Amino acid sequence: xxxxxxxxxxxxxxxxxxxxxxxxxxxxxxxxxxxxxxxxxxxxxxxxxxxxxxxxxxxxxxxxxxxxxxxxxxxxxxxxxxxxxxxxxxxxxxxxxxxxxxxxxxxxxxxxxxxxxxxxxxxxxxxxxxxxxxxxxxxxxxxxxxxxxxxxxxxxxxxxxxxxxxxxxxxxxxxxxxxxxxxxxxxxxxxxxxxxxxxxxxxxxxxxxxxxxxxxxxxxxxxxxxxxxxxxxxxxxxxxxxxxxxxxxxxxxxxxxxxxxxxxxxxxxxxxxxxxxxxxxxxxxxxxxxxxxxxxxxxxxxxxxx
Length: 306
Known about the structure:
The structure is a single chain. With 306 residues, this protein is α/β, with parallel strands linked by helices. It has a single domain (20-294), classed as TIM Barrel, CATH 3.20.20.220. Helix content is 38%, strand content 17%. The protein is built from twelve helices and ten strands. The chain has helices at residues 20-25, 34-37, 63-75, 92-104, 127-132, 161-176, 191-203, 220-229, 236-243, 246-249, 256-268, 285-294; strands spanning 2-4, 10-12, 29-32, 52-55, 79-85, 109-113, 141-146, 181-187, 210-215, 274-280. Strand 7, helix 6 and strand 8 (181-187) form a beta-alpha-beta unit. The two termini are 30 Å apart. The relative contact order is 0.18. GO terms for molecular function: oxidoreductase activity. Keywords: Oxidoreductase. It comes from Pseudotabrizicola alkalilacus.
């Protein structure tokens, strides 16, 4: 079946060696917000038991809603990983309270990040401060944010100097503690810059495994809106170029091309630093889950290298 790729040419669906894409999708994770989770009648009908489900904490979301979502997911057999955005946490007492609430419902994993607000509301403004706080002692796993295409909030000059410095610090933190850590990234739409970035991390001595962020199936207009809002970098251009072709404008985007390319690279280079795939279900959780199932993905523990 022919697909339209992002370079504006008709192409055959990528055909990596048998099992490459399926193996690459093993252990995938997915993200929800409390308000989107409320619309899902039964997660067990969509996701395999053991799936890691990140819970995005948007500014103004009450902690009670976050904890209720985590409790529901845990009770249904999933691994809940709530966000801890440093810049919306008022003080140490608030952080301690949040962690205690999550512990009470069985949460032992968290994604620590600076958060998208411009000005911190209190004492914290970086994920490094959260890591150093000691509040997460006893957690099984801590993830931090990664930026394959840079982050202009951190490096306004367009470089990635501060982003890379922070990545080295976080990697060193993992090495000097018993923290099980990984780097979960922003979503992007082109495999080549991702491969270059992951290789550069390794060259820079960053040993954190990468959980690569990928946008799930969605309408092109929806993706462009979210990509702009989330500060996606150069790979946004491939979406914009596609949008200029009216024959493709109404065609839903699927992440087959980018994931097939990454899967093929991982198969050819087993030491490549991507460990798992993390989905942003911008077109809906059900749609995303169905796409992964159709392409052989299963959640839970990642597949072991052959």
